[in-house]
Amino acid sequence: MVIRTDNLSFSFANQQVVKSLSLQVPAGSIYGFLGPNGAGKTTTIKMLLNLLKIQDGSIHIFDKELQGNRIEILSQIGSLIEQPAIYAHLTGKENLINRAMLLQVNTNRVDEMLKLVRLTNASDKKAGQYSLGMKQRLGIALALLGDPKLLILDEPTNGLDPNGIIEIRELMISLVKEQGKTVFISSHLLGEIERMATHVGIINNGSLLFQGNVKDLENISQPQVHIEADNTVDAANLLKRHNFIVNDINNEHLFVPFTSKQQIGEINTLLVQNGITVYGINKQHKDLEKLFLNITKSN
Amino acid sequence: MKGFLLSFWSEFYKSRKTLGFWSAIILPLFLNLLAVAVFYTKSDKFMMYQPMVLWIQFSMMSLGIMGTLLLPMFVIFIAYSVNSVEHKADTWKTLFSLPLSRWSVYGAKFFYAVFLIFLSLFLFGVFTIAFGNLLGIVKPELKFGAYHMEVQIMQVYFKLFLSSLGILAIQFLLSLLWADFLKPMGIGFIATITGVIAASKNWEYAYAFPYAHPMAAITSMIKQNKGPVRDLEIDIFTKDVFVSLGVAVVVFIAGYFIVRRKSVK
User: Fold this and answer.
1) Cβ distance A85 to A138 under 8 Å?
2) What is A3-219's CATH topology?
3) What is the ipTM of this complex?
4) How far is the C-alpha of B183 from the C-alpha of B176, rounded, in Å?
């Protein structure tokens, strides 16, 4: 495990914001750390970076205890927490040079990083004049500068436009696939994580509700047969009379819990034989968004 | 140690385009140029002075201002400026998640502030000596060349430097803990006024109050020798200087423990 926490807890004054969190982040994974705003994501990340003192529990990173091996562990982590921390009075390039000096990284890497996040043309512009998306990209360049084995990114796509989000996603995937890095990425947007994560942890009110790989998450959500038809009400009544369970009906579509491929064929035949025009019929997984709402509501 | 040096260098790199850094150079240059302008335009008034008195008059133009209100305010400003770089950019969290010990980050920042104060006061001495000699050449009727007190001038500024370290340590810690300018500035300003009053009224315990030290340093600088005054002898290590150094060491170490225990927001 690259990150392992055991019963990690943290309170601000009387409010417990992280409750017995036991994270398991395997090497070479993109671990999506999901939760609504205020769920305790940033607090957890700050503990992982030793910015907040652990009150209860323990953290092991690269199988080493964090507190006792702080510098050794931090030298292999690149991070971006909340808003990118950038010196507004320095240019983008100077921000990177400053960090390169502190990390004792060859300054050639500065240009590479600028190219990677497409800021070469803006490298001599003051970072204070950057757009939010450019700042975020510079923040990612800063996190990647030291060629870390583990990237910890807190909401890295905040403020990025759709193209920017796609670029970051592709960058993360290629870093993991081609360079064997591990990415721990927090977000409150499921769509974003769904498309790149290999593993997911869902947190709400400080507690971990689910942890596992993305397949596990899909399996616990029951697939549905999605039916589009000209008259959904008649179709629903017909199906009910033939002992199908129907849920979620509107003018456009209706859903029936999926059991087998044969079942889809039977439904189709039944509808067509009774004069209902079927526009579409297919198997669908409940998307993460709905699943997430279900999990957080039920807790 | 390497971490400390890297952090120190980074402090310079970050601040080299800020007012905090340039004020350490511009302030001595400006005040000395002002003194030059006064002596140049009113040279007829100063030409009757003995060379030694002339040097004292010339150097006191900057020394007098620095010793009273300006040095404490400058120290307050420098302490604020090295910390505000991080407050403004919200970079404390990044700084403390780098593979550097907390001591390196904290120590380098503190000693960079010390360095800026040293640089500024060193330049005060250098500019005073250089501009005095320059005036002697441009206006030969001002007999700057007939007397030499380079050593004494540098000694006085060194004494001022030592006397400012107590204030610096206190203000540095205040500016580190508070992101806004008004709190450390307000506290510093009130303490400075108190210090000036305490030192100028010769309050017997003024030596124990850091904000009174720069002024006390000026009033205690001349060695009290018996007999007629022939040469100036500067007494650097007076009681107030020792108190200032003591306060600086204690507050600096206490600050380190506060930073180590502090959670970074």
Assistant:
1) no
2) Rossmann fold (3.40.50)
3) 0.87
4) 11
